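Hey, quick one: can you model this chain's 3D structure?
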Amino acid sequence: MKKRIVLIAVFLTSVAAGISCTQDSQVRVGGPCDYDKIPGTCEIISITKTSESIRQAATTGGPGYEGYVVNFKFKPLQENQEYGAARAGHMTDVLGKEYVLQLANSWYPGDKYLGKYRIAQGNIFNCTMSLIRKGACTPVVFKFTDIDAADYFETAK
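Sure thing. Here's the predicted structure for all 157 residues.
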């Protein structure tokens, strides 16, 4: 029984970390991964409703509210930071893109969430971009200093 509980705990921890694994601890899919953490700012570019973000209100197991697609752009604090020759080209691709701010479970934020975290077009937040160095995990991950992506208060009824 202890072994089963430990395996479940390891599995849940791995899932939370974005790593999948089988019961055989030697086989891993998606990890381990290594990231460069790059401090910077994220500017909110636009906030819109789309058919997909609206549809989440009626999705079984969804949040029960219509969401917003929140687009943002990342800007590093140090413009000329060294990333290595191979990574410099990747940084150019990353810096020119718009990204979508979603909750940790991929839901779109709703009205109350936008209000609670003061998310509005033009607002700038401190954030860190994690850029994959090695491994097969998500290539780019953002963490906002003052926005909790795992705050699901809006679904509480």
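One thing worth noting: Residues 23 and 130 are 28 Å apart (CA to CA).
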